[in-house]
């Protein structure tokens, strides 16, 4: 399959940060001088947090650039403009909250460690993170992989099926998000909830292998390359589990979650600008088609 410009851009971005993270882990494992490199990078408001903020800023600019481009060229893609505006605003609010948290930071880590000893404490302290991870896992890993794994195709002749097909994340986007879930210690976890996180990742990876076996046509050069990096990442993360356990690896995960979301938005934005998505509005999606009744009347 022929790669799009978006596939090339986001795969290159993914490659850069994969190398960045893996090198920091490998250096931390084999160098006594830099043994705390990954740990330091993972601290709140350090290297990985800065990278996440920079990606969020690029995300906001990408969404607003799409809206401005659509308005200037008088496109009737109302649905896409509204969704892009909402996502861009949400990312801007997230960026501002992260910056404010950095400026007004007190001693949140001490509180977090106090809660981390019990399963209930982790759920209460990380309820927002858990909700976000669950939503992203279902929408960007399970559903996009479960449908091709079961050889289920959306009915593109139905307006809802056509709309969902246009917004379905690609294999590349799923690989980016799956890599984020691969960043975790693979053993010696503090509680059972973290092992659930690991098994959810294994389920997602198994679905990916099923899709590869049953729908090889969905994989091109960049899909295979990103899959290779995912496998390499799994090996490095499993060998460096002890180091990852000591760090706040959610900050590292955030980088790849943002790349995955940017890739997803970039896919349907590019398709919309190229005219591959039919112009639509929310009113058209929820309204019932009047064509059948008109056809029946004409026959009568």
Structure description:
It is a single chain. This protein is mostly helical and 300 residues long. It is 76% helix and 0% strand. Helix 7 runs parallel beside helix 10 and helix 9 packs parallel to helix 11. The longest helix is centred in the N-terminal third of the chain and has 26 residues. It is globular and about 60 Å long. The relative contact order is 0.16. The C terminus is likely disordered.
Features:
300 residues, mainly alpha, 76% helix, globular, disordered C terminus
Q: Given the C-alpha coordinates, what overall shape results?
A: globular
Unreliable stretches covering 5 or more consecutive residues: 107-117, 289-300
Distance between the termini: 48 Å
Count every beta strand, where a strand is a DSSP E run of 2 or more residues: 0
Helix content: over 70%
The H/E string reads HHHHHHHHHHHHHHH
Q: Report strand %.
A: under 5%
**Mean pLDDT reading:** 83
Question: What structural class do you assign from the helix and strand content?
Answer: mainly alpha
What value does the Rg take, in angstroms?
Answer: 21 Å
The biggest sheet, with number of strands, parallel, antiparallel or mixed sense and barrel status, is: none
Number of helices: 15
Summarize the structure.
The protein is 76% helix and 0% strand. The chain has 300 residues and is mainly α.
Question: What is the topology?
Answer:
Layout (H helix, E strand, L loop, with lengths): L4 H26 L6 H6 L4 H26 L5 H26 L4 H8 L3 H7 L1 H23 L9 H9 L3 H12 L9 H23 L6 H19 L1 H6 L3 H24 L8 H5 L4 H9 L1
Helix pairs in contact: 1-11, 1-13, 3-4, 3-13, 7-9, 7-10, 9-11, 9-13
